[in-house]
Amino acid sequence: MTSVPGKRHTQKERRHRLLVVGGYGIFGGRIVQLLESEPRLILLVAGRSLAKAEAWCKTRTGAAPPLVPTRFDRNGDVAQGRPVRSRLSPAAPRRRRSR
């Protein structure tokens, strides 16, 4: 949602973006199908392949919220195109829990 300076958005007007990682796969696709009837959402259908996300979104013609095909990979940031620092990445040492 683009914010307009000086305009207040009511809850009715506001749309929330929801990122569904693996959204064109078996499980993620089912989640998207269940959320398709919710008009207050913008569904970001994400995965490693933008082509697969685009193809899957084209098959869902009756969706109330916009379906936005998105490339998402653990090695990059969806919004900025920058690397993501993850605690689970092999480069980062794991912390041991004290017992």
What attributes characterize this protein structure?
99 residues; 2 helices; alpha/beta; globular; three-stranded parallel beta sheet
Describe this structure in words.
It is built from two helices and three strands; from the N terminus they run βαβαβ. It is α/β, with parallel strands linked by helices and 99 residues long. It has a domain at 16-71. Strands 1-2-3 form a three-stranded parallel β-sheet, with helices on one face. The longest helix has 10 residues, at 26-35.
Number of helices: 2
Which percent band covers the strand fraction? 15-25%
Mean pLDDT reading: 75
The tally of beta strands, per DSSP, is 3
Identify low-pLDDT runs: 84-94
Order of helices and strands: EHEHE
Helix content: 10-25%
Radius of gyration from CA coordinates: 17 Å
What's the arrangement of strands in the largest beta sheet? 1-2-3
- CA distance, first residue to last residue: 45 Å
Coarse morphology = globular
SSE diagram, text form:
Layout: E1 16-21, H1 26-35, E2 41-47, H2 50-59, E3 67-71
Parallel strand pairs: 1-2, 2-3
Summarize this, please?
This protein has 99 residues and is an alpha/beta fold. It has helices at residues 26-35, 50-59; strands at residues 16-21, 41-47, 67-71.
